[in-house]
Each structure stands twice: as C-alpha cells, then as structure tokens.
Write a structure and sequence with these properties.
Rossmann fold, seven-stranded antiparallel β-sheet, binds adenosine monophosphate
Length: about 475
C-alpha cells in the first residue's frame, strides 16, 4: 500500500557549481518548512552519483564536513520530505537513487500522483520489484523500462504514463533535469548563480544562496541542464493551468514568490478581505503565529483594530501535523504556543489563523486565550472551510477527519468554543488572488470546493474521501 497521506515536500537542484552539495544543503535549509521528516542530497562528480539521506532536519542530517566530502561534484539535487502516518521509513527518504542498464539516476519529487497504485500494480505484474512505498519510485521504474535512447525522451515517456502533481528534479552522472507537471500544481522556479543553474520549489531558497531569480519552470516544461547549457522541452499535451491556492494559504514561506506572486502580499490581502466579510467590534487582532501573521496584519489594517502578539511561538519544534497521533497533537499546541496574559486579559480578541483543518488546534488555542483572561474571542480564518482532501501533494486528512466536511459553521464554532467564527469566502479569496497584479489563471481550490482538476481512480477516491 502507498502512504495513507500525501507528501508535501521541497526540491532543489544546482548544476555547474564547484560546491554543488553545499549549495544544495543551504537550499534545503531554506525549504525546511516544506518538510521536516527526512531529507537528502544526491551529487554527481561527472562519473558517479553519491547520496546521503536521513530522517530529521537538514541541519541534523548534514551535520559534519565528512558528509560533504563524500558528495563531491558540480551537480547536486536535494529533497525535504513531509509525510505522516505510515511514511516514516528510511527507505522513503529522497532523492531516490538507482542504477539501471543505462547508468544511475536520482530523483526528488514534490507532489502526488493520482494513478501511482495502478501503474505500480501493472509494473509488479510485469516483474518489477519495489523497495519503497513512495509513488515516486513508479517514475523510476517507468524510466528504466523505456526503450528510448535519449534521457529527456525516457523521462517524458515515463511521465506521460502518470497523472497528478509533480515538480521533479532528476540527476544523472552528467545531467540534471527539472520537470513541472502540465497543470503546474506545485511551484518550481529557475535561478542562476554565476554560471550555475538552480531550480527550487520556492524563491526563498534562491535568496539564501544569492542566486538570481530567472523565471518559473512553466507548467508542462522540462528543462535539461548539461555541458551545453540549458534546453527547454514541451513534451506533454497542454492542460489547464491549476496552481495550488493552498501554497498561498499556508504552505509556502511568506518571503517567497510562488506562481509569480508574492506570498506575503497575498496573505495580507486575504486578511483584508476577511475583515470586509467578517468585521466585528473588538479591542485587538492577534495572529496564530507564524502562519496567521500576514493575514492578521491585513485584517488589522482594514478594520482599524490594533494588531498585537497575544500568542508566542516556540520556534524549536516542527509543525503541528508532524506528530501522527491525535493524543500527541493535542499536547503539541501547548508545546508550540503560549499566551501573554498582559495582552489578552479583559480584551475582546479577534484571532486569525490561516486554516482550520481538524479543529483541534483552534480549540486548544481558544482555551488558552480564554484562560489568559480574554473577554470575547472571535475566530477568523483567512481561507474557506477545508472540506475536501488533497490528492495533489498537500497533506490533508481523510474527509471524515476534516471538521468542515461534516459540520456547519455554528457547530464548528461551538466545538472550538469561540464566541463567533468567520471564514473567508471562496469567492472573496479568488477575487483577492486575482486582484493582486498579474492573473493567476484558475487555481486548484479542490480542498475548498471539491472541484478536482485531475480525476483519480474510484477506489482511491472512495477511501480517501472516507466513503467506506
Ligand atoms: P487543525 O488542528 O487540524 O485544525 O490544524 C489547523 C492548523 O494546522 C492551522 O493552524 C494551520 O496553520 C495548520 N495547517 C493547515 N494545513 C496544514 C498542513 N497541510 N500541514 C500542517 N499544518 C497545517
């Protein structure tokens, strides 16, 4: 069986730099928010691929110089992985590197394939033996089975057989290849550092290594980097462009530009729109840090209610969802956040968070704010109710665990024990997304609307939608 939940991940690659593995380490460090469970780097010195992988944070897995001495060469790719139940296995760390008839290849994947199980069943029926439970391994097998001679053709042939979300970086002894799926679900940007080419999930990784942002890798585009420089291919049938709006809600870092749009500005805009839709008389606006901060600034600006930090976050722990057990997650909120009584006591408080998923976090936070003496608590959420699971690479629970899938706003408000609750409307969110400069096209907002741009097999849908 595949992992029950999808993987959210970050990818990075650099070609033509004397310290490729070191640069990749820094790139992954900047992308740590996209995955804290495991990480890895594969590097090539032109004749051989070497890989180092491990569970844990980038700084812990790559903690001594000796590791970098073992990763020589001018090209490297890296991956940070975020998985939940069932996926916490060293064999699922990426980049996945293999040797096959034509040499070696390593791959790092952000996204989720919707037909991976079906393709895997077919491959296993033809004799393939899989060593991981990650759907990314399917791509490797398809690549190895391809009869085409040229690497770009083999990769294209493999990817034409899979459907779903992928931003991928491949590394062979002599080449690096970056590919973004034809719908462009997940971000991938191209940068330049001197003569070296860089690809990364988000621009914050380019900023850290002082690489220049060149452009996005376009949806359906394959970039091949080799001794001749960079070549762009368009090997797929064009599809509607559907970048993931949840990158703006929660996932991407606010200092990044993804899909050509600044995340911080977008989040602030969501907060402003939220204030227009769900204004309330209150004394202070406080964010749930860190992800609620830009939206709370926007809400405060638009409403004229002063912004305060009523909750302080401990930065030395991972994100809440990293603990798969409900019991630990409950505890986790207290480990992560503490309330400031001096700010909250006697106040009518607007609390802004970016999303409510299971409702567990909000319930704990509101209890904490109330214990700190708040008089009224008005919960405002800078995205619409999350009612549908994601099949394209964001980790959302199955349908029955999503509180908004089976409860009304009034029921959710009661459950989280707020005085009032208001969510940003989907129309408001899309309007705000469109109002910022440049047109995003039609985002994927399946987690809010249930309109899935890429269909998936029935069984998977039924299981994940919680229908049986
Ligand atoms: P919950 O307790 O399930 O309602 O969790 C909601 C909190 O989790 C919010 O504060 C969000 O910032 C955060 N969150 C939303 N989506 C995700 C995700 N896919 N992975 C990790 N955390 C998330």
């Amino acid at each position: 069986m595949f992992d029950k939940f999808n993987d959210e991940c970050g990818v990075f690659g650099i070609y033509g730099h004397p310290e490729a593995a070191n640069m990749t380490y820094l790139g992954l460090y900047a992308l740590q928010h996209r995955g804290q469970e495991s990480c890895g780097i594969a590097a090539s010195d032109g004749t051989r691929l070497k890989t180092h992988l491990g569970r844990g944070l980038v700084a812990d897995v790559f903690k001594d110089d000796e590791i970098f001495r073992q990763l020589p060469g001018q090209a490297a790719i890296g991956h940070v992985r975020y998985s939940t139940a069932g996926g916490n296995d060293i064999r699922n760390c990426q980049p996945i590197a293999v040797s096959y008839a034509r040499g070696s290849v390593a791959v790092a994947h952000n996204g989720n394939l919707v037909n991976a199980q079906e393709v895997r069943n077919e491959l296993e029926a033809r004799g393939s033996i899989f060593s991981t439970t990650a759907d990314t391994e399917v791509i490797i097998h398809l690549l190895a089975h391809s009869q085409s001679d040229a690497l770009p053709d083999r990769i294209a042939e493999a990817l034409r057989q899979v459907r779903g979300a992928y931003s991928l970086v491949f590394l062979t002894e002599t080449r690096m290849v970056a590919v973004r799926d034809p719908h462009g679900f997940r971000p991938l940007v191209l940068g330049q550092l001197g003569d070296a080419f860089v690809v990364a999930s988000e621009t914050c990784a380019l900023d850290l290594i002082e690489a220049k942002f060149v452009r996005e890798v376009e949806a359906g585009e394959m970039l091949v980097f080799d001794q001749n420089g960079m070549t762009s291919f368009r090997p797929f049938e064009p599809q509607p462009y559907t970048p993931c709006i949840f990158e703006f809600v929660y996932f991407a870092r606010p200092d990044s530009t993804v899909f050509g749009r600044q995340v911080y500005g977008m989040r602030k805009g969501f907060g402003r729109q939220l204030a227009r839709e769900h204004g309330v008389e209150a004394d202070i606006v406080i964010p749930v840090p860190d992800s609620g901060v830009p939206a709370a600034i926007g809400y405060a600006e638009e409403s004229g209610i002063p912004f305060e930090m009523g909750l302080i976050r401990n930065h030395y722990i991972g994100r809440t969802f990293i603990e798969p057990q409900q019991s630990i997650r409950h505890f986790g909120v207290k480990i992560k956040l503490n309330a400031i009584r001096e700010v909250l006591a006697g106040k009518r408080v607007v609390v802004i968070d970016d999303s409510v998923v299971r409702g567990t976090t909000s319930r704990k936070i509101i209890k904490m704010i109330r214990q700190a003496g708040a008089k009224e608590i008005h919960m405002r959420v800078s995205s619409p109710p999350t009612s549908y699971p994601c099949f394209y690479g964001i980790d959302t629970p199955t349908r029955k665990e999503l509180i908004a899938s089976s409860h009304t706003n009034a029921e959710i408000c009661r459950y989280i024990t707020a005085d009032t609750l208001g969510y940003l409307s989907l129309e408001g969110m899309l309007k705000e997304a469109g109002a910022l400069e440049g047109a995003l096209g039609k985002c994927c907002e399946a987690c809010f609307s249930g309109n899935y741009p890429v269909k998936f097999p029935r069984l998977k849908a039924d299981t994940q939608l919680g229908l049986f």
